[in-house]
Amino acid sequence: MMKIGIVGLGYVGIQLAVGFGQKHSVIGFDLDQQKVNNYRVGKDSTGEVTTEQLVNATSLSFTTDSGALAGCDLFIIAVPTPVDDARRPDFGPLIAASKAVGSVMTTGATVVYESTVYPGATEEVCVPMLESASGLCWKQDFAVGYSPERINPGDPERTLATIIKVVSADNEKTLEMLANLYGEVVAAGIHRAPSIRVAEAAKVIENTQRDLNIALINELSILFDHLDINTQDVLEAAGSKWNFLPFKPGLVGGHCIGVDPYYLTHKAQEVGYQPEVILAGRRINDRMAHFVVAKTLKLMAQQGLPLTGASINVLGITFKENCPDIRNSQAFPLIRELRALGLKVVIADPRADANEVLSEEDLQLTDLSDLKRASVTLLLAPHREFREKGLAWIRSITEDPGVLIDVQAVFRKEGEIEKTLTYWSL
Fold first, then answer.
1. Sheet strand arrangement including 190-192
2. Given 171, 203, 235, which residue is the final one in a domain?
3. CATH code at position 339
4. 137: annotated active-site residue
5. What is the pTM of this model?
6. Residues 16 and 151 in one domain
């Protein structure tokens, strides 16, 4: 049995902690005291693990004291890798985590990184922090591995156990050890990458590829709107061919897809290459919130609705459906633009934490039961709660005549046959 320290207890870290905590002695570390307190009583605010799973991880404990990580054989670092206001990589959390681990690790330790970075970052940014904080020498006194996270928040089907795990390390012995270790909790299988840089590149292009594919469909959606062609009809027709990729238009946010491409473009520019397609895709996806606002105003004008002082119900402000995460959600620039135009915006989201929304975005959430009829209802993140309430409920909180902006086309079939409700989707 190994003693494992998990640094960072978000979507990724908590699943690792629970998985390994059923087989090894695990201590989970996070700076957020409230999060740690919740885990201690079997509550996961991210919804990624159940109370039963937390209880069954009998060898798992939680702490906000990095000193408690002392004595661990293996450290797994799974902290966020955001970008700054200039869209450059912000290694602050990763550097802090590396220093914390370095300050307690001893000779013979292994440190594994799961955070998404550009190729070379683990060895260029993280390893020097480990050496400096520990006084140890890489490859001589400690080993390093990289196993990129592939968690899909809000998806109960694709979990740590069911997604193939890529592992890499700085030597063959460590690689095999990590492959065997992760194999204990990942039933889907292990892919051994030939180097840490290859594994880093694989992870960052997974999200970059998705970002670009969505950007293409988003641009087509804008074009088809100008041509007065229904995008969903086009996608259904094109999707009848076996090799057409089934991507859908939408708002791209969150801590991964809307961020990770900038790590790759930063490294590209650093080595003298100007990435054209990746940055073009980012520009398209970043302007989709504005496109939705512009379309909303156009439909309101066509209905004769006032463009100043009118009320709009915005439903679902997390970055994706069935998930409580509001980081980098494109709902917020959309809301700010609507308010700047003089519209009264009322926001409801049963998944988002009201205190977090208030502290991070200075916005108040309204309970679903308190929503009143508005000129426009704008459905952004179609959480299960909204789908279950159905179009009839949405109709009840929308004026007659009124406008329904159903970004992800959840109620398309019903919405398009409404007589007095102007319906639109991407």
1. 60-63, 25-29, 3-7, 74-77, 110-113, 143-146, 165-169, 190-192
2. 203
3. 3.40.50.720
4. no
5. 0.94
6. yes
